[in-house]
Amino acid sequence: MEQRISLITLGVADLAQARRFYEGLGWQAGMAVGDEVVFFQLNGLILSLYPLTALAHDAGVTETSSGFAGITLAHNVRDEAEVDAVLSEAERAGGRIVKPASRAEWGGYSGYSGYFADPDGHLWEVAYNPGFPLDAEGNTRLS
Amino acid sequence: MEQRISLITLGVADLAQARRFYEGLGWQAGMAVGDEVVFFQLNGLILSLYPLTALAHDAGVTETSSGFAGITLAHNVRDEAEVDAVLSEAERAGGRIVKPASRAEWGGYSGYSGYFADPDGHLWEVAYNPGFPLDAEGNTRLS
Fold first, then answer.
1. Closest chain B residue to A78, measured at CA
2. In whole angstroms, how far apart are CA B84 and each of A1, A57, A90, B77, B90?
3. How many helices (H) and strands (E) are present in chain A, helices listed first?
4. Which contiguous run of DSSP H or E holds residue A76?
5. CA torsion sign, B5 to B7 to B11 to B17?
6. Could A140 and B46 be called an inter-chain contact, meaning their C-beta atoms sit closer than 8 Å?
7. Which residue among B55, B60, B70 sits closest to A99, beta carbon to beta carbon?
């Protein structure tokens, strides 16, 4: 199995609401099929919004769930001010601040991060981590 | 918020076991901090394995969870035979086949996909989807 990923699919309760939230962050949908699915082109992979029930059905699992999903997504930025700016933007777009930004220590690097939840509770960390600098294309690479 | 992602973090019950599973897929860890965290470089972003309890604590949420996480990851490949090969590889590495590969129809494209779960239940779809061809670097782009 090659060491890469193609899509992340977020199960959502209300596709139109979820789309509005991500568009409220300034994102542009690259493709959408009616009220079935919405795709956003990210850096080399695709984020897809898809009804939770359909996603569970597609995977052949029961839809019932509660509590922590056990998975988080992270959006790294170039400085601390951008952490605050993105968290504010997420809140204005209808997200929920789960953890306000605070200092963080990662392997000797002093950073700054907070978390927001999208309307379906999917957790995004917004982080400035000098140990994981972004390249010119916005990609993150282990040094 | 720029339209990109930096990391995906999978909460795991047993870091060593989870690492062995992904290494069993042929992946190579790019960085690891003792028994705290393991990073794999993917295409422009990082997959991180991190103890579930620590991840919940970091996000400031309770760790309790059950059922479907409501999020899936997908690994697209170049043909149907590779779907079968990757699912077999995942099973040999200690994964669980959640949905055996079968024909799929996506927006007029006829494809083939199945799902496996890693040792912590994180769901990966392995898919051949001619509507989402891979580029030379293994990236997936909306046409």
1. B2
2. 11, 21, 40, 10, 10
3. 3, 9
4. strand A71-76
5. positive
6. yes
7. B60
Give the residue carrying structure tokens 């990662």: A106
pLDDT at A33 over 90: no
Burial (Cβ within 10 Å: 0-12, 13-18, ≥19) of residue A132: buried
Q: Do A74 and B6 touch (CB under 8 A)?
A: yes
Residue of B nearest to A39 (CA): B142
The pLDDT tens digits for A2-25 are: 999 999 999 999 999 999 999 999
Burial of residue B71 (CB within 10 Å: 0-12, 13-18, 19+) is buried
**The predicted structure's pLDDT at residue A108:** 85
Minimal Cβ distance to B90: which of A1, A31, A46: A1
pTM, two decimal places: 0.92
User: Measuring CA to CA, which residue among A36, A39, A63 is closest to residue B70?
Assistant: A63
Helix (H) or strand (E) holding A2, with range, is none
CB B114 within 8 A of CB B97: yes
Are A8 and B65 in contact (CB < 8 Å)?
no
- Of B11, B43, B90, which has the smallest distance from its Cβ to A45's Cβ? B43
